[in-house]
Write a structure and sequence with these properties.
Chain B: Its main location: cytoplasm. The structure holds 2 protein chains of 2 kinds. Chain A has 3 helices and 3 strands, in the order αααβββ. Chain A is α+β, with helices and mostly antiparallel strands. A 6-stranded antiparallel sheet of chain B has the order 4-3-2-1-5-6, with no helix packed on it. The chains are: A alpha+beta, B alpha+beta.
């Protein structure tokens, strides 16, 4: 029986996801709509082959409308011990909590 | 013909960003379209040429591709999938073909 080579698939998928998000980052000032399409494709591939997108790459685009954040189109504020990133295209707020460093109580 | 097939990666890889030229096409005015692929759908490639954006169907065409310093000819029928499907279905399609090692 023919089997899928899942290791190979996920390796190729990972390459493609990283490549597309990087490309979206480069193209966002040239063609914003196309940059969004790259993010969309990257996410589709990542979901199908269960590739995890690292946190620092996830923070480069809006989770809701998938437009990459670019200068003038997003706002970053620190409120109530959270970093709040607002997308000015769709108004979606992403809240990233800032955890204080763990203190070892026993000492 | 047995042996490892060249350019298997290309079927599963991203075509966005590659230089491409249309070599054969049932539509004569499409032959010679050359440029960078900027977007891809299930049935078409969107190619950015010097004269603007061109949309070329994949089925029935042959493409010349510049990839890692090599020039390859690829039939459009082989990549006639959705871009995210191409990894799985493209590789399986090659596996099913007789006498092909990947």
């Amino acid at each position: 029986m023919l089997r899928r080579d899942k290791k190979r698939e996920s390796r190729i998928a990972r390459e493609r996801v990283f490549y597309l998000i990087k490309r979206a980052e480069e193209w966002k000032n040239i063609d914003y709509e196309l940059a969004r399409r790259y993010v969309e494709l990257a996410r589709k591939i990542a979901m199908r082959y269960r590739v995890r997108i690292p946190r620092e790459l996830k923070a480069t685009y809006c989770k809701k409308c998938l437009y990459p954040y670019k200068a003038g189109k997003f706002r970053v504020r620190v409120r109530k011990s959270r970093v709040i990133i607002t997308c000015l295209n769709c108004g979606f707020e992403r809240r990233i909590p800032i955890r204080p460093k763990r203190v070892n109580r026993k000492v | 013909m047995r042996g490892r097939l060249q350019g298997v990666e290309l079927i599963a890889r991203d075509w966005i960003g590659l230089m491409v030229e249309v070599v054969e096409s049932p539509n004569h005015s499409e032959v010679g379209i050359k440029g960078e692929v900027v977007d891809e759908t299930q049935n078409t490639l969107k190619i950015m040429t010097e004269k603007g954006l061109k949309v070329v169907a994949k089925r029935g065409r042959t493409f010349r591709v510049w990839y890692k310093g090599k020039i390859m000819r690829i039939k459009g029928d082989l990549i006639n999938f959705r871009p995210e499907d191409r990894i799985k279905r493209g590789l399986m399609m090659l596996k099913r073909a007789k006498g092909v090692w990947i």
